Amino acid sequence: MEASQEYYISLIERLRNMSDETEWLEYKVNNDGPELIGEYISALSNSATICGHEMAYMLWGINNETHEIEETKFSPKQAKIGNEELENWLLRLLKPRIDFRFTEVNTEKGKVVVLEIPAAVNKPTSFKDIEYIRVGSYKKKLKDYPEKERKLWLAFETKPFELRPSIENVDSARVTELLDCAAYYTLMNMPLPSNRDAIIHNMMDEQFIREMDNGNYLITNMGALLLAKDLNNFPNLKRKAIRVIRYKGNGRINAIREKVFTKGYALQFEDITDYIMTLIPQEEEIEGGLRKEHIMFPRKAVREMLGNMLIHQDLTAHGSGPMIEVFDTRVEASNPGNLLVDINRIIDTAPHSRNENMASFLRMVRICEERGSGFDRMEEGMGELKIPAPKVETGDDFARTKLYWYNNLTEWSKEDKIRTCYLYTCYCYVNEIEVSNSVLRERFGVDEKNKAIISRIIKETKESGYIKLSDENAAPKMRRYIPYWA
Asked: Are 197 and 252 in contact (CB under 8 A)?
């Protein structure tokens, strides 16, 4: 027996045991009117979304009262409306054009036809421009049930990409082949269970997998992105693997090394951080006749930049994924999806993550910060090395964080100085540290004898509108500074 037939026979048996009130399921024997089928596709697709189901079903060959198999005469492959095949006719009249599928299944008791109907995504499914819904076991027009319509639109807003299926219809053995479940227990500091059933239970609790209607499992996008042994096994996610590129110089003309990390983010996060640190150039100094090398960018800044890039990326964007680029004197992290907060409020604004379920797990295993302090920690690391605060850029479909390195303050651009003065003032404000000339001298690595340099930077930052005096009447030596929004 073919695997597909085994799947559908198992599916039919499980669906036969469902309640008559299941709003994403309909039984028929031979009622195959094309208008009826079109209306039911709309109703079941919309109801599946409200019920949190990935798929709805219509079965021919099942008695609606007893749920027993009664061989159907319906043959969708031969059905036509005029000279047009039934499937093409339905597809033309459905909006959006959902990927429904008819399958004829030969059971021991006779032929059953299974119609698989994907749940509506982003907007209601309509037939002939009319939207339908199931109310109990009845098919109704959606517009006549405003409460159902409200729930449907709410469901569109609350179904994140992370929890949508990446791969479907895999058994428990295949789940453990595709996902590194053992690594999950290492990350959680928990003992590995002695049986697969317990592992599957934990994977379901974390929403890494879900049980399907036929008893097999689907792996969610989140499960794959975090724990995949190889993202190439997940066709819709392989472009989300992290790319790291090292260039010669500070331009993109000469790429001298590129590596793609194809394991799940949680599995390789520390390895990726380690790898990036090996690519970062070492600064050389001569002290007492001895040549010394030290890293040009702090690990904590690189680590937080990587974490922010992953959890804030727009996973629905096609053809692009997260990327780290290493140049001679800067590091850039880019991801699809614009920044969700105002760039100028990136330190004090409460965090907004596109992928909160994934972010929550990464926080739990201490890969990402519990609160929105990733940018704070980047600034801390840059401040320790007396180099500019991170720079963030965003557009309609991208966000990019840049780290810069310079030998000394004379190489900094005016923009670097103003940005660093402002962001460090924000950092101090949220951490209840008073900002004075001496505090900023420490951040910029300037001696007291050169405090005029800092006074000039403060003046330029004030004139740009980013900081202000906390007390306009304070004497010069008592002046303290706060962000413009404070």
From this structure: no
Let me know whether 278 and 397 are in one domain.
yes
Give the residue carrying structure tokens 């201490």: 366
Strand 282-287, strand 255-261: pairing: unpaired
Q: Which domain holds residue 462?
A: 412-483
The strand pair at 467-469 and 391-394 is best described as unpaired
Give CA separation, 133 vs 20, 139, 149, in Å.
16, 6, 9
Adjacent-strand bridge partners of 130: 127
- C-alpha to C-alpha distances, 90 to 48, 79, 128, 201, nearest whole angstrom: 19, 11, 9, 39
Confidence grade of residue 371 (pLDDT, cut at 50, 70, 90):
low
* pLDDT-based confidence at residue 2 (cuts at 50, 70, 90): very low
CA distance 382 to 361: 27
Helix (H, G, I), strand (E, B) or coil at 436: coil
Q: How far is CA 316 from the centre of its chain?
A: 8
Q: State the number of CA atoms in the 13 A half-sphere of 443 facing the CB.
A: 29
Residue 404, helix vs strand vs coil: strand
- Whether residues 28 and 64 share a domain: the answer is yes
Judge whether residue 10 has pLDDT over 90: no
Look at residues 194, 214, 236 and tell me which one is the last residue of a structural domain: 236
**Domain identity same for 271 and 382:** yes
pLDDT grade for 31, boundaries at 50, 70 and 90:
confident
> pLDDT band for position 350 (50/70/90)?
low
- Rounded to an integer, what distance in angstroms lies between the CA atom of residue 402 and that of residue 389? 9
Cα–Cα nearest to 348, from 438, 480, 466, 437: 466
pLDDT at position 395? 85
Same domain, yes or no: 149 and 169: no
Instruction: Give the C-alpha separation, 460 to 111, whole Å.
Output: 80
Q: Which residues contact 85 (CB under 8 A, 6 or more apart)?
A: 79
Round to whole Å and give the CA distance between 276 and 273. Answer: 5
User: Against a cut of 0.90, is the pTM above it?
Assistant: no
Of all residues in the chain, what percent carry a pLDDT higher than 90?
A: 65
Query: Are 139 and 153 in the same domain?
Result: yes
Q: How many domains does the chain have?
A: 4
Residue 418, SS3?
Answer: helix
- Alpha-carbon span 399 to 397, nearest angstrom: 7
- The tens digit of pLDDT for each residue in 215-264 reads 899 999 999 999 999 999 999 999 999 999 999 999 999 999 999 999 99
